Known about the structure:
Elements: H1 4-23, H2 35-42, H3 46-54, H4 57-67, E1 72-77, H5 79-83, H6 95-103, E2 106-107, E3 138-141, E4 147-150, E5 155-164, E6 168-173, H7 180-183, H8 193-198, H9 202-243
Amino acid sequence: MSLILPFFVLFTLFLLCTTTLAQTPAPAPAGPTNITAVLEKAGQFTTLTRLLKATQMADQINTQLNNSNQGLTIFAPTDNAFASLKSGTLNSLSDQQKVQLVQFHVLPNLYSTSQFQTVSNPLRTQAGNSGNGEFPLNVTTSGNNQVNISTGVNTATVANTIYTDSQLAVYQVDQVLLPLDIFGVQAPAPAPVTAATDLPSKAPSKSSDTTDDTGTSGAMPLNHNVVAAISLSFALLAAIALQL
Ligand SMILES: *[C@@H]1O[C@H](CO)[C@@H](O)[C@H](O)[C@H]1NC(C)=O
Ligand SMILES: *[C@@H]1O[C@H](CO)[C@@H](O)[C@H](O)[C@H]1NC(C)=O
Ligand SMILES: *[C@@H]1O[C@H](CO)[C@@H](O)[C@H](O)[C@H]1NC(C)=O
Ligand SMILES: *[C@@H]1O[C@H](CO)[C@@H](O)[C@H](O)[C@H]1NC(C)=O
């Protein structure tokens, strides 16, 4: 008798412990979003993945996803899209142009497909200025959820949503987005020697004013999205707080 009682106490304690341990939830398979892993899982993006790695943009995108809560939108051309480029197109680009080409497919904000309906064109990409002749990108939508992207050189259609979370949206596109700055017909350089020597400061300041204007108008709708994203984050935090 004197041995059985302690045994029962210990056994009950053991059962309590194991049930408590079993009830604690397994840690989430966390870790920051990895664009390479997202594309590998989706398949048919080997050329884009190679380009992302060669330009170091994969690391840069992953770092951005880990460090900021602003979000990114990526247009991902399929292997077929790259294959339908004129042969030698990628090889003819300089390293810097390859980086710009990849950056042109990345928007520094998270856009849902429904948000595309209200964006104001041209959109700013990570390639930089959206002024005419540089890196403008227009998104147009139609009633039946079709989303087109025009660059001034070509027009691609969003075929599919590959991935989306609170920070990143990846959309499959049927064509490589070709920026005007790299693939546009080169405008003749307006460099009249006399004007440059007569009025050295006036001409450059005028042209930089116009680029500033387009840059600002392009940035305005993005600010709305930041505000929307922040309010959404607060709403989520409030919801979580209520549940606790
Ligand atoms: C991202 O995923 C790729 C492919 O799965 C892997 O090779 C790479 O190491 C991952 N990078 C990080 C930072 O986890
Ligand atoms: C993500 O960011 C955290 C905090 O800044 C850092 O400790 C961690 O090493 C980063 N992870 C990766 C994979 O970059
Ligand atoms: C998108 O592009 C396709 C093919 O170029 C065209 O038929 C369609 O009308 C366009 N839709 C929108 C919303 O621009
Ligand atoms: C993009 O949109 C802007 C503003 O609506 C327009 O001026 C420009 O011509 C458009 N470019 C293309 C290639 O559709």
